UniProtKB/TrEMBL annotation:
Encoding gene per record: ugpC
Name by which UniProt lists this protein: Sn-glycerol-3-phosphate ABC transporter ATP-binding protein UgpC
Organism this protein belongs to: Pseudaminobacter soli
GO CC terms, sorted: ATP-binding cassette (ABC) transporter complex, substrate-binding subunit-containing; maltose transport complex
Topology of this chain in the membrane: Peripheral membrane protein
Localization (cell): Cell inner membrane
Signal peptide: none
CDD domains: ABC_MalK_N (cd03301)
SUPFAM superfamilies noted in UniProt: MOP-like, P-loop containing nucleoside triphosphate hydrolases
InterPro entries, sorted: AAA+_ATPase (IPR003593), ABC_transporter-like_ATP-bd (IPR003439), ABC_transporter-like_CS (IPR017871), ABC_transpr_MalK-like (IPR015855), ABC_transpr_MalK/UgpC-like (IPR047641), Mo/tungstate-bd_C_term_dom (IPR008995), NA-bd_OB-fold (IPR012340), P-loop_NTPase (IPR027417)
Keywords: ATP-binding, Nucleotide-binding, Transport
Gene Ontology molecular function, alphabetical: ABC-type maltose transporter activity; ATP binding; ATP hydrolysis activity
Amino acid sequence: MASVELRNIAKSFGSVEAVRDVSLSIGDGELVVFLGPSGCGKSTLLRMVAGLEEITSGDLLIGGQRMNEVAAADRGIAMVFQSYALYPHMTVAENMGFALKMLGKPRAETERKVAEAAAILQIEELLGRKPKELSGGQRQRVAIGRAIVREPEVFLFDEPLSNLDAGLRAQMRVEIARLHERLGTTMIYVTHDQVEAMTLADRIVILNKGRIEQQGSPLDLYEKPVNRFVGGFLGQPQMNFIPAQLVSSGGATELAVGVPARRVLQFANVVAAAGGTIVELGVRPDSISIVDPMLETALPAHVVVVEHLGGSSLLYVQVDGLEELVTVELRGKTAFARHETVGLRFDPQRVHLFDGGGKQIESRAAEE
Ligand SMILES: Nc1ncnc2c1ncn2[C@@H]1O[C@H](COP(=O)(O)OP(=O)(O)OP(=O)(O)O)[C@@H](O)[C@H]1O
Ligand SMILES: [Mg+2]
């Protein structure tokens, strides 16, 4: 097991800056997820750790040793890719043991390690089969097994589950979490699936355009996004972003939304950004409740679409003066119907304010 440290790592492909100045310390035994949209540099960053991509500038340390110029095979890492890349003419056991055979390890040792890995992954009965005789999920297990037998210091995963259907993906996600618990090995896991990131990670690193936007525990990022990008990227259904205006009123600051404007929230302190008083209210669908639209602090809205999901319901509502529909998530079934007028109430403890540049504005709800 080993720690991994990235110091001011950058990568350019000609004029394309894929990774810019990324610094990050990954603790021994930690499971860190790189999360971000397509093209943000996740794979490039991982491939630099693996030694599959040259580092343009910065330092990479694994277990305290500088690794920039060390060959991939000598870094003590094992990587699992999205494409399983199994040898089609070899059996499962041969695929899993191949790296050890190449290293000239004794056959008995290789067989023992393959058997151990197969037991962990519950694929013992598949050891004699060829890859073409396996399902997608089974192939992915073999690919993980091939990494396990090498007993790496660090596991690297690049979207290992994205070729699987939703059910199998959820199942394999749990297995990877259990594998991490059992082996205790440092893991870096790349995905663009925020649910995978939220459920697996000790720590999530959110990347955007080659830079780190924010890093922290899943719940920390979910509850305290430093900017609009992070707020919008984590959470399903997505956070609502509602144009709003800060208005001072006595000692407090109020937030006005819609046309005609309603003062829907009161803040005890708002460190107003240089951008001025026009802000965006970030509020997750489950932080909005439905109240009497005649209430003074309620924001009236019309129900446009109702989705019944069984355990919960989603209302898509139109607020006068706002372009985009607001999504509201309610527990259980809902009796609200299309065209009905409802009142929205935003949970003052769970709203976020963003300035014109998308940065989070410090705010604290007024006592009610
Ligand atoms: N070999 C290459 N030559 C030129 N540009 C590249 C090369 N590899 C990656 N890039 C560019 O670097 C950027 C980051 O790519 P990368 O593959 O790391 O993204 P990613 O976050 O893994 O995306 P995805 O989720 O789609 O896999 C992209 O703009 C990509 O086009
Ligand atoms: Mg990628």
